[in-house]
Write a structure and sequence with these properties.
By secondary structure, this protein is mainly beta. It is 11% helix and 43% strand. The chain has 2 domains: 129 residues, Rossmann fold (3-Layer(aba) Sandwich), CATH 3.40.50; 261 residues, Neuraminidase, CATH 2.120.10.30. This is Tol-Pal system protein TolB.
């Protein structure tokens, strides 16, 4: 069930604590990707270990990170290193016919050499069937930025082949919890998109909910209960500086940034039932958009900023509705099934991702906005809080693995999926950052 909807409908905290308060720790923790389903249409690609001309070894295996990134996208199926027919380090050393025999469609080679306290990285991408070099670049990286450089290389390769901008250099935010009852402890983390370089940016004795990245990737809005009641905060992800935007009596929840970063949509119950409001962040002026006896929550903006989608039970069960960002009549947009919530748009606005319910549980699904066709993307039983990658190719969400809360991800076509469990226990409430440059 969608977490934002469930917490409102069931008293805001009861179900959340029941799901989150397992045995975890609040210290820094990397999430490890476990592939659960590979695409049978993934493109074969060979990523050869990069030749290193320095002494000893590198602290990061750049080529392996690139290979992992491409595999996690669901678009590529990297050859195992044992299947590599040779170990070229430049395009001049590549014999295309050799790679055709192992059905490699593309090939990545490279070399790394130390330059003072930095590294010079050269990489190249070859089209094996076309028999040509597609891409080549030289970059400089510090020791501490080798993973970031690998993600950058993955982004360039992904875009060169697919025509879609890569999202491997983006980040995710998520919530972890430790203990239970009076010993409960909560933490907000940010990490690389592959779960590494996790950093805690907030720790609290009280629940943290609904993290949402600003469009520039600099700030995160979230809900905290540290003052005894729900309140919406905005925090700088790098400096930790933060401000409290709302702390009205009742529910202050589900913050969502407008595409231009000037406004924040939210659900407030200060006037009775939870309704959708929009705050102008410069003036702090609130505009109420909905006025209904139903529960209205989980707003999200269309990519053009002209409309909002939100969850409402005004039809008797949670469904998704759309209305102008300036207010007016709301129109129902989901009709398949009796439960659809937590809508999130693809970057082009053509697809609506959401949580839907059927006889087997709660799943991440997508609806084509032109045809209204709904496709269920996951087969797990308890999915919630979907968040879409900025290139629209993957959706990250919270789910259950046994008794543990984990993060899951599924490709937008549903063909590939993976999970990001924490070695320390429960993680939930994921949010995928925008492109960071």
């Amino acid at each position: 069930m969608s977490q934002g909807w469930k917490t409102l409908a069931a008293g805001w905290l009861v179900s959340l604590v029941g799901l989150m308060c397992l045995t975890t720790t609040a210290k820094a923790q990397n999430l490890t990707i476990e592939i659960t389903r590979g695409s049978d249409q993934a493109t074969p690609i060979a990523v050869v270990p990069f030749e290193f001309s320095g002494q000893g070894g590198l602290p990061q295996d750049v080529a392996q990170i690139v290979s992992d990134d491409l595999e996690h996208s669901g678009q590529f199926s990297p050859l195992s290193r044992s299947a590599l027919v040779s170990l070229p380090s430049s395009s001049e050393d590549v014999f295309y016919d050799d790679w055709k025999r192992v059905d490699a469609r593309y090939l990545v080679v490279g070399k790394i050499e130390p330059q003072g306290d930095q590294y010079r990285i050269q990489y190249e991408l070859m089209d094996i069937l076309g028999g040509k070099r597609m891409l080549g670049e030289t970059l400089t990286s510090s020791n501490g930025n080798l993973r970031a450089s690998a993600h950058y290389i993955s982004d360039q390769i992904f875009e060169a082949i697919t025509g879609i901008r890569g999202a491997f250099s983006t980040r995710i935010a998520y919530v972890s919890a430790s203990g239970a009852g009076d010993n409960a402890r909560y933490a907000l983390y940010v990490a690389d998109a592959d779960g590494y370089n996790s950093q805690q940016i907030l720790s609290s004795d009280d629940p943290i909910l609904s993290p949402a990245w600003s469009p520039d990737g600099q700030k995160i809005a979230y809900v905290s209960f540290e003052s005894g009641n729900s309140a919406i905060y905005v925090q700088n992800a790098s400096t930790g500086e933060r401000v409290r935007l709302t702390s009205f009596r009742g529910i202050n929840g589900a913050p969502a940034w407008s595409p231009d970063g000037s406004k924040l949509a939210m659900s407030l119950s200060k006037d009775g039932q939870p309704e959708i409001y929009v705050m102008n962040l410069a003036s702090r002026q609130l505009t109420r958009l909905t006025n209904n006896s139903a529960i209205e929550t989980e707003p999200d903006w269309t990519p053009d900023g002209q409309s909002l989608i939100f969850t409402s039970d005004r039809s008797g069960a949670p469904q998704l509705y759309r209305m102008s960002a300036s207010g007016g009549q709301a129109q129902r947009v989901t009709f398949t099934g009796n439960y659809n919530s937590d809508g999130r748009f693809s970057p082009d606005g053509k697809t609506l991702f959401m949580v839907t319910r059927d006889d087997s549980g709660y799943h991440v699904a997508k609806q084509d906005m032109d045809t209204s066709r709904v496709t269920v993307l996951t087969d797990s039983r308890w999915d919630e809080s979907p968040s879409v990658a900025p290139n629209g190719t993957m959706i990250i969400f919270a789910t259950q693995q046994g008794a543990q809360g984990v993060l899951g991800a599924v490709s937008s076509d549903g063909r590939a999926s993976f999970r990001l469990p924490s070695a320390q226990g429960d993680v939930r409430e994921p949010a995928w950052s925008p492109f960071l440059n």
